[in-house]
Design a protein that fits this description.
It comes from Bacteroides gallinaceum. This is Transcriptional regulator. The chain is of the alpha+beta class and 149 residues long. It is 46% helix and 21% strand. The chain has a single domain, classed as H-NOX domain. A hairpin with a 3-residue loop joins β1 and β2. α2 packs across α6 and α3 packs across α4. The mean pLDDT is 93.
Length: 149
């Protein structure tokens, strides 16, 4: 059995999960993926920004393959990835757009790790695996005392 055959079963299994089950599954996946190096990049960016969300997203523009926009100061941002960096996709093992939940969960993990006093909602607006030229995430930030955004 080829590894690519195994991943066909993986894709099929993921497609059978409810959206809530996929969130749980991919939250663990995204956390492990981001801990392999990307989290440190964002920690350094957070430190340079002095914890300021607006400065953080402005500086994210300096990262290769990343573009960020401040839509509303201290509350709404767009984060773009110009290419899919998922190793499973890049190696040709997985091509389902359901895999993008892993990216969404990794962004949530990063944000909650850096701003423990904030609540975040991340929405996938478009992704390469869904046919868009880049991945676009909408990030809403609220205070921990507010209802989850």
């Amino acid at each position: 059995m080829e590894l690519s055959d195994w991943f066909k079963g993986f894709e099929d299994g993921v497609s059978r999960l409810s959206p809530e089950q996929r969130e749980v599954f991919f939250s663990a996946c995204g956390e492990h993926c981001v801990k392999s190096g990307t989290l440190q990049v964002y920690r350094e960016l957070h430190a340079r920004a002095g914890g300021d969300l607006d400065v953080f997203f402005l500086q994210a523009n300096e990262l290769p393959g990343v573009k960020a926009e401040i839509v509303e100061k201290d509350s709404l941002y767009h984060l773009y990835f110009m290419e899919c960096t998922c190793g499973l996709f890049r190696r040709g093992y997985v091509s389902t757009p359901l895999l993008c939940e892993c990216s969404r969960q990794s962004i949530l993990y990063v944000l909650h790790s850096l701003w423990k006093d904030r609540r975040f909602r991340v929405t996938i607006c478009g992704s390469i695996l869904r046919g868009s030229p880049c991945c676009k995430m909408r990030i809403e930030a609220g205070m921990s005392g507010q209802k989850a955004v």
